[in-house]
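Can't attach files on this board, so I'm pasting raw text. These are the components:
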Amino acid sequence: MTRLSPGDTIGILGGGQLARMLALAAAPLGLRCHIYAPEGDNPAFQVAAAHTVAAYEDAAALARFAGAVQAITYEFENVPAAAAAQLAALAPLRPGATALAVTQDRLTEKRFIHAEGLATAPFVPVESLADLRAGLDRLGVPAILKTRRFGYDGKGQVLIGSAAEAEAAFAAIGAAPAILEGMVRFSRELSVLIARGLDGETACFAICENEHRHHILHRTTAPARIQPALVTDAERLAARLATALDYVGVLAVELFLAHADHGEAELVVNELAPRVHNSGHWTIEACHSSQFEQHIRAVAGWPLGNPAMRCASASMINLIGDEVSQWPALLAEPGAALHLYGKAETRPGRKMGHVTRLQNGH
Amino acid sequence: MTRLSPGDTIGILGGGQLARMLALAAAPLGLRCHIYAPEGDNPAFQVAAAHTVAAYEDAAALARFAGAVQAITYEFENVPAAAAAQLAALAPLRPGATALAVTQDRLTEKRFIHAEGLATAPFVPVESLADLRAGLDRLGVPAILKTRRFGYDGKGQVLIGSAAEAEAAFAAIGAAPAILEGMVRFSRELSVLIARGLDGETACFAICENEHRHHILHRTTAPARIQPALVTDAERLAARLATALDYVGVLAVELFLAHADHGEAELVVNELAPRVHNSGHWTIEACHSSQFEQHIRAVAGWPLGNPAMRCASASMINLIGDEVSQWPALLAEPGAALHLYGKAETRPGRKMGHVTRLQNGH
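---
Top answer:
Structure tokens for the assembled complex are below.
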């Protein structure tokens, strides 16, 4: 139950914008960050006290890194299991190995959610084309075929519109171990960002509402326009999942607000991310403690901060690819809080920054 | 009239907490920081993309530094004139050489303020013990003898209670060129933080009220409890000074709210700091754009942000020396925003951090 002290160092696996914003939140708390990332454009290096450039398979570099920090966290869930196991033996890894193991595999994750008595999309495991055909038979079309591992932002996914597309779809995902998911009819995509401390205390941010474009988050608004009873349900569900994972840090729970045939609203868990999440970026300006501060507090073994909103509502819009060229207008817009990620190269589909706007705040 | 672009680097002279908070404000705007500071405990290095450890007299290191950045600013006003001149010839130095020259010398500063038609404490230049004796004769006692250069937080100052103390006082400041100031009877100490952009646009933060202990700022509250007419006066006065200096960046104007014999309130300028200022730290949580963001925007040649408050009032308390050991209680206090500066060693009188509390905000 290590608790950090000011002056200690948190190690972060991954050098992208999430690590960058974690490091920016750690500094005011007197904590240093050491970023570990493979060769590449790692904008988190620009704001961290130290960094290591090495592969996640480099056991010697991982050991040196673990020896230089007092706790370790990560900005992405696809940390190789061997690296996670090695690091966890050398320093507190938060969130822990269970959270990683469960969320790295879509099938394991769905089964875990079911075991907690919560709803997911209907699904069948797919190991072969025969499995896929049988699954399409059972779930009907349209359905989505997803690789069990390494999917994000719509990558490793194929939408199947008819049974005749089965073979092409299975080939498209490289015949990898997969999961076939039935479609959920939903009216809104929501997410719950929940922080859980080392002592088991939990604190939710306002439920937020997400709009995707081309499988990439486009806009988040908070609080979500849903019934108070659903807010309570969503918070309970998130706390249940975080507690079952013995989670330490910020956990993102993506939900569908689904409507059963008789019209009743139901929360269906879409997926979990064991980390700070794009749909929580609005918390930087809108909340007393942001998702990044909450994560750092939890990883440090410190009490959680106050996630309450400081304004009536907030909206966050991602700047994807060339959209970042809007920066001069956004800088000049009163009330727009611009965040640029310091990435060297603008590429289509790449998250280059975001902008947050607050409504009815002071 | 260089305007920076995201990805560009701002060079900052000085590696303390002000440089650190500037770097933390530059990052979300997509700007890198390169810190230049002599050997020592430089907590700004922990959050900057690059740093140079060298003396301010090292012309070769200064030249390399200037070549690596697109604009240069500083966290302290005592930048040696030779360094400032060298740097200004190589890259935009903001605020510029005039602001440095005026504010580095208490006598020049007072004369400048007078030339703008504004009130200061009565003063006389002191080059010799004879000057000092004549000055005490003219201004009466108590009076304060201050070195013209290199004073801060009460250093380089002696309070003179009787004419008999003249010789000891002059010796105490090392017989350096000095200024003797008469006492101002005041009811409050105020400060105005004003930002001025490259295009001459100005924007004031709410006037704040300061309480010192042992010559070190203890507490700032904002907005100051003063008449609206005085707020307007203070803002005009600050804009006048910033414009006269052709200033770019955040300028701190320390004021006394003085009372003339007939009881009328009058604003007397105490001193200027050509940089972000301890009395503006509350703006991080309380304002849409903080003093650090405003300074970075101005230095980058970008439009100023919105300095409006997001809450009814705010208070900031410095954590000096051992007071920083309160960190666990402050971390656990709902609504307290803790800032620790990442300094390696706690020493009496050293600014180790601060805490900001907001009132009546959302």
